[in-house]
């Protein structure tokens, strides 16, 4: 935002007035150049704009009286004795010079040199030696000076420029030379700027001044060469911020750029990172060792007899193996002594007893389990949805949240932003966009502004307009940032001011020309209202594109086509209120809704008809679009559920046969399973709602899908396990045996998933933390319903099928002939035959095993090598619907905006007492410490590529100390009664009715607040500081004193309790460089934190940086630490659970190895797909561990419980569980995930379609390809020992399979 100040700018333009104040000389033909002789004397006329013109008559210098001499000495100590100016001229000079003092007084050497330049011009007794009148003009019958030569040595000119070039003007966050020198790059440009004759009505000199450094040989003239002071002079020394070249100022090296992986090695023309080379070497070493071990192991195995073939996985009884059942039914005598852990024996006993009990009491189990979950759903009465972005993405305990709360409470919350970006459309042929700065486009912007002014929001029946809510730093005008401010926001002045030419003039003179001041009486920086130009600020464009640095040169020669801005940026700052007890924010939201509606319905068509583009946003836009997103993908999510339901219904049933399909199908069972999943989700939401935890939209859309995808796996495994049981045994025994067979692996998988999701609750981002908590409880409830209600439903379905009743219509019974065909036996399905006849035998080939291990290890290590390339952040566009108007707005921000976000350095507990060193440790003017905060900020801005600080900070402290200074005699003043006296150009000293303010009014007796003797080393005492600070903060800036703090610093200081000598909070404002990518935002925050920490430690003062975006990007500073820590905890928890349940550390280690490989491969895919690392993806990675467990644990458990050598056991595990894993886990997730690619929200496509699809494919390959190979090569030993089996007939053996 532009800094509010009335005539906060004076510049050399006004200083040229003082040049006019002393010119008196004889006719050019009568010039006399000698000591004690004047070239000009007295005033002989005035221009039409009121500027005074000197007399061109030469005359001897005169002796002033004692009082006049003292007055001259106070301003011009180099002049003594005779003078070449009248007292009236000197008073005019003094009144005009005081406008320059606030800009330069922070650097005494610069101020003294600058005053000497004009003192010598105006009053030097030897004026004729270096002043030569070259032209005259007649005004009202009198001859007046129209042009002069001013001879000055290069030594003085260079010394003047060097002492002033780095002096800062804090209020505008820029160099003072931009105001008093037109941004000159050297003293010659500065002199050219000063000397150009200004057109009538424009600021500048009323006549031409030609600065020269050479003298003709025949001339008696001598260049002016008074002593020039260096800014590093010890007697008139400047601060390091204003004089970085001073020997006393150290220049510490800038902070190094943050680089996650700076190590790289060049191999010929190829440059590779160290980690990539390391992984390549590790791969070569691992593969070599593996092939060597595998070869030795194979030769050793060929010399040993293979174990005889063992039966497939056997149901386990309390003591281990159910041999009695098989002996009684199949005639097989089996004796086993199982080496099972206590946990396994307990689970086997529990599931056998529980399976028998549930088969006998299915109705009771179904009713009780559903009733419990329904009771949990009762908490939905307190259901609420959180949509506020700061509550979703920022933890309340975060450092940034605490700093924001401190800033908002002690200073002022950052204003609300409403914005329009009007841009030209690139030419289809050249691809270049034309300039936006044309008469037609400015008039169009006036039409747009008129419609915005007519907006009336409706809040509780009352109308709300922009003036009711906008920010008004000065007066009653809104601080709208727009190019229209150069026309006072009035279309009627457009032609009067000169149209687009006036705008182009103001681009260069926005700080100096009163006609360029905004309607709210402050300058408007072109960089804030224009966009799409090259460089980081508009001055760079003027210099690089126009080839000139002197504004008047540009003004006279420039064509508007050379101005390369392609966009108008219009910003409406709106008041923001903490807590909003007065409903101010609610009134603003009502206006914002009308603003967005107007932009969509009227402004957009209007702009497009002119072949322009328009993007727009309001403060509440993101929140409103997030709400809309809740309904954006309802159809997609419903379609995903429907597809999964259809697949479940098909896969749960037997192979379709027309004459038995209506009996063998499981549509009703599948539908019941989906209902149980939804009940588990509602139960989870109900529990947390009862506890007062608000839900999020992502929970309502993703968790049902996620739990369904997870829950379907166990449903398929349970149904397939029941199908595998011999049909000759009773239903009770089949249910019991099925639960004993798959119950432990289902329990292990579900418990692992719950733990993995629960770990996600430690992620600091609230939306992801809440998501993880809801998901963990939902999966736990789903597991509970699966082993209770769903098993009971399986019992009912088996009874229905056995009773020959139709699926979905169980009341209808078919003839018994069909029943016989159904009960006649179950043929193996296609997947089971594929696993037994193709998949398992192929993986058993030795060459295939070697290739599988080599390829999977290669992918894993390659993923580790590229994982550091994973970018952090979360693009705002991804969170929004694809058709959101904010998509275009964020694109426009990146393309057109050339101003970075405001950056505040907040100082806590500043002790301003005279005994404290804090003042000099913070300020940057004369006598301040070289390593002060503001000096360090200034240094950092010179290395903006690493510090991300664009410019020196606006300092209320510097401006206050300058405002207090006796040199700034037009600023801090008091009446004879001690009350505050404003500058002479402000009421009551000067009324609005007066064209020219009189110096003889009621303020004629006002004096400066202090004399030098009243201050201690130019610093106020504690009492003086305490008394005058409120004066400063209430002082309006004007031409006579641009340092007034009202508007610019109104909210920069917390005056609550400041009387104690300590200011609790104050801020120093600057800007970040333009930030376009997520990495820029993260690095800017990191750099600001590191800078503040270093300064705080050095000065022993509590300082922290604050910007509006910090609260959303803080999480990315340590996102890698959070991610790796939580992933390690999740993997560690799963290892412990697997160990406890299986009692095999070997098997658990293999599971963890496969999980880690799945995880790193998924991270590698994230790099390839361009998916960023953020809280959403971290939660997905944590969840992927839980989901990936299902691909591993069932195969591993089957391998562990089977008997024989490793090769045979791996094949048995694939034949037994492979089909279930593929159909129940892989395909189930795949069909549901694919539907998400049609979602309208990009976040679903990127983080839930792409990531989950990658997870399913990677998990399937590792679970059904890599894991069986590793188990066959290095699997754990079998648990079953001393097995004796006597097989009595071939048929019985086949039934066992």
TrEMBL record:
One of its GO terms (cellular component) is plant-type vacuole. It is a multi-pass membrane protein. It is found in: Endomembrane system. It comes from the Eukaryota. Keywords: Cholesterol metabolism, Disulfide bond, Glycoprotein, Lipid metabolism, Membrane, Signal, Steroid metabolism, Sterol metabolism, Transmembrane, Transmembrane helix, Transport. GO terms for molecular function: lipid transporter activity; sterol binding. The chain crosses the membrane at residues 277-296, 364-383, 634-655, 667-691, 697-722, 742-764, 770-796, 843-866, 1119-1142, 1149-1171, 1177-1200, 1221-1241, 1247-1271. SUPFAM superfamilies: Multidrug efflux transporter AcrB transmembrane domain. InterPro entries: HMGCR/SNAP/NPC1-like_SSD, NPC1-like, NPC1_MLD, NPC1_N, SSD. GO terms for biological process: cholesterol metabolic process; pollen tube development; regulation of sphingolipid biosynthetic process; sterol transport. Residues 633-796 form the SSD domain. It holds the Pfam family NPC1_N. NCBIfam families: 2A060601. Belongs to the patched family. This is Patched family protein. It comes from Arabidopsis thaliana. The lineage of its organism: Eukaryota, Viridiplantae, Streptophyta, Embryophyta, Tracheophyta.
């Amino acid at each position: 935002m532009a800094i509010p100040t009335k005539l906060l700018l004076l510049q050399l333009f006004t200083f040229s007035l003082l040049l006019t104040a002393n010119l008196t000389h004889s006719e050019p033909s009568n010039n006399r150049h000698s000591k004690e002789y004047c070239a000009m004397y007295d005033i002989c006329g005035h221009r039409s704009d009121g500027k005074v013109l000197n007399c061109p008559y030469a005359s001897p210098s005169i002796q002033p009286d004692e009082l006049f001499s003292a007055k001259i000495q106070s301003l011009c100590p180099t002049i003594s004795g005779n003078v070449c100016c009248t007292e009236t001229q000197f008073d005019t000079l003094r009144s005009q010079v005081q406008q320059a003092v606030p800009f330069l007084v922070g650097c005494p050497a610069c101020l003294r040199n600058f005053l000497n330049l004009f003192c010598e011009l105006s009053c030097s007794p030897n004026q004729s030696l270096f002043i030569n009148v070259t032209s005259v003009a007649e005004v009202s019958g009198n001859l007046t000076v129209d042009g002069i030569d001013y001879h000055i040595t290069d030594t003085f000119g260079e010394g003047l420029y060097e002492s002033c070039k780095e002096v800062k003007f804090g209020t505008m966050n820029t160099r003072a030379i931009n105001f008093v020198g037109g941004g000159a790059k050297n003293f010659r440009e500065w002199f050219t700027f000063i000397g150009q004759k200004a057109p009538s009505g424009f600021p500048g000199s009323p006549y031409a001044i030609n600065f020269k450094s050479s003298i003709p040989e025949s001339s008696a003239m001598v260049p002016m060469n008074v002593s020039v002071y260096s800014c590093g002079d010890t007697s008139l020394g400047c601060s390091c911020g204003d004089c970085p070249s001073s020997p006393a100022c150290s220049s510490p090296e800038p902070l190094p750029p943050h680089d996650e992986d700076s190590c790289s090695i060049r191999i010929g023309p190829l440059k590779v990172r160290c980690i990539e080379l390391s992984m390549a070497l590790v791969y070569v070493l691992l593969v070599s060792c593996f092939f060597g071990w595998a070869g030795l192991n194979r030769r050793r195995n060929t010399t040993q007899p293979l174990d005889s073939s063992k039966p497939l996985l056997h149901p386990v009884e309390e003591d281990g193996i159910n041999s009695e059942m098989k002996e009684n039914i199949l005639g097989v005598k089996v004796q086993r002594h199982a080496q099972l852990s206590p946990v396994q024996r307990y689970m086997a006993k529990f599931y056998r007893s529980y399976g028998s009990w549930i088969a006998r009491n299915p109705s009771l189990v179904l009713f009780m389990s559903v009733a419990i979950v329904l009771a949990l759903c009762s908490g939905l009465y307190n259901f609420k949805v959180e949509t506020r972005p700061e509550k979703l993405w920022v933890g309340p305990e975060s450092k940034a949240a605490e700093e924001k709360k401190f800033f908002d409470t002690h200073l002022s919350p950052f204003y609300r932003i409403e914005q329009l970006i009007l841009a030209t459309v690139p030419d289809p042929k050249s691809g270049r966009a034309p300039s936006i700065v044309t008469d037609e486009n400015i008039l169009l912007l006036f039409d747009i502004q008129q419609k915005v002014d007519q907006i009336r929001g409706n809040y509780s029946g009352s109308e709300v307009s922009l003036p009711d809510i906008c920010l008004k730093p000065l007066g009653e005008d809104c601080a709208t940032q727009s190019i229209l401010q150069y026309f006072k926001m009035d279309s009627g002045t457009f032609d009067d001011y000169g149209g687009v030419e006036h705008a182009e003039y103001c681009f260069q003179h926005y700080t100096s020309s009163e006609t360029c001041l905004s309607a709210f009486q402050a300058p408007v920086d072109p960089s804030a209202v224009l966009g799409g130009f090259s460089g980081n600020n508009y001055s760079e464009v003027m210099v690089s594109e126009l080839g000139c640095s002197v504004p008047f040169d540009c003004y006279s020669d420039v064509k508007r086509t050379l101005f390369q801005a392609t966009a108008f940026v219009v910003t409406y700052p709106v008041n923001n209120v903490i807590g909003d007890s007065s409903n101010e924010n609610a009134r603003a939201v009502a206006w914002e809704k009308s603003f967005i509606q107007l932009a969509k319905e009227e402004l957009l068509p209007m702009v497009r008809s002119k072949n322009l583009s328009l993007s727009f946003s309001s403060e509440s836009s993101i929140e409103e679009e997030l709400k809309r997103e809740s309904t954006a993908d309802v159809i997609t999510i419903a379609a995903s559920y429907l597809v999964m339901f259809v697949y479940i219904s098909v896969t749960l049933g037997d192979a379709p046969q027309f004459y038995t399909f209506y009996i063998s199908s499981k549509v009703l069972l599948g539908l019941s399973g989906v209902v149980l999943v939804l009940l588990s989700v509602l139960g989870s939401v109900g529990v947390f709602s009862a506890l007062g935890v608000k839900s999020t939209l992502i929970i309502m859309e993703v968790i049902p899908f996620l739990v369904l995808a997870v829950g379907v796996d166990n449903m398929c495994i349970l149904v397939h396990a029941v199908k595998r049981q011999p049909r000759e045994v009773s239903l009770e025994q089949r249910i019991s045996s099925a639960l004993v067979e798959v119950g432990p692996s289902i329990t292990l998988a579900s418990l692992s998933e719950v733990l993995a999701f629960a770990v996600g609750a430690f992620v600091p981002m609230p939306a992801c933390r809440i998501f993880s908590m809801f998901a963990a409880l939902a999966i736990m409830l789903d597991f509970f319903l699966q082993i209770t209600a769903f098993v009971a439903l399986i019992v009912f379905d088996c009874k229905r099928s056995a009773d020959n009743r139709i699926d979905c219509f169980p009341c209808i019974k078919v003839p018994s002939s069909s029943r016989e065909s159904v009960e006649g036996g179950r043929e193996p399905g296609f997947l089971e035959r594929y696993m037994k006849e193709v998949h398992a035998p192929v993986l058993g080939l030795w060459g295939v095993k070697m290739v599988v291990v080599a390829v999977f290890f290669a992918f894993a290590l390659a993923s580790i090598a590229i994982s550091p390339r994973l970018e952090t952040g979360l693009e705002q566009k991804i969170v929004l619907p694809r058709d959101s108007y904010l998509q275009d707005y964020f694109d426009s921000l990146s393309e057109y905006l050339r101003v970075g976000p405001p950056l505040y350095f907040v100082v806590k507990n500043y002790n301003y007492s005279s005994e404290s060193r804090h003042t000099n440790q913070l300020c940057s003017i004369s006598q301040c410490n070289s390593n002060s905060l503001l000096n360090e900020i200034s240094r950092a801005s010179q290395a903006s590529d690493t510090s991300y600080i664009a410019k020196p900070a606006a300092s209320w402290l510097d401006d206050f100390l300058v405002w207090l200074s006796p040199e700034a005699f037009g600023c801090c003043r008091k009446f004879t009664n001690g009350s505050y006296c404003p500058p002479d150009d402000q009421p009551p000293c000067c009324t609005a009715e007066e064209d020219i303010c009189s110096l003889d009014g009621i303020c004629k007796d006002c004096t400066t607040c202090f004399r030098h003797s009243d201050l201690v080393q130019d610093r106020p005492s504690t009492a003086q500081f305490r008394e005058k600070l409120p004066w400063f903060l209430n002082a309006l800036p004007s031409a006579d004193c641009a340092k007034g703090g009202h508007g610019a610093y109104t909210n920069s200081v917390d005056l609550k309790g400041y009387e104690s000598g300590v200011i609790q909070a104050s801020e120093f404002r600057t800007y970040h460089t333009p930030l376009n990518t997520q990495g820029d935002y993260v690095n800017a925050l990191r750099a600001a934190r590191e800078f503040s920490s270093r300064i705080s430690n050095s000065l022993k003062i509590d300082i922290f940086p604050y910007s509006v975006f910090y609260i959303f990007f803080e999480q990315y500073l340590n996102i890698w630490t959070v991610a790796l820590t939580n992933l390690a905890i999740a993997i560690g928890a799963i290892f412990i659970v697997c160990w406890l349940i299986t009692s095999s550390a070997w098997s658990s280690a293999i599971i963890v190895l496969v999980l880690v490989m799945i995880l790193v491969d998924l991270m590698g895919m994230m790099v390839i797909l361009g998916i960023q690392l953020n809280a959403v993806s971290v939660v997905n990675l944590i969840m992927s561990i839980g989901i990936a467990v299902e691909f591993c644990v069932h195969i591993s458990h089957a391998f562990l419980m089977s008997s024989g050598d490793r090769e045979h056991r791996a094949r048995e595990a694939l034949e037994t569980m492979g089909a279930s894993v593929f159909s129940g886990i892989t395909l189930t997730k795949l069909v549901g995930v694919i539907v998400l690619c049609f979602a309208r929200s990009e976040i679903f496509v990127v983080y839930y379609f792409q990531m989950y699809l990658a997870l399913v494919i990677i998990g399937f390959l590792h679970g059904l390809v890599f894991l069986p190979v590793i188990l066959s090569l290095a699997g754990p030993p079998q648990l079953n020992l001393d097995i004796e089996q006597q097989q009595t007939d071939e048929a019985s053996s086949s039934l066992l399979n």
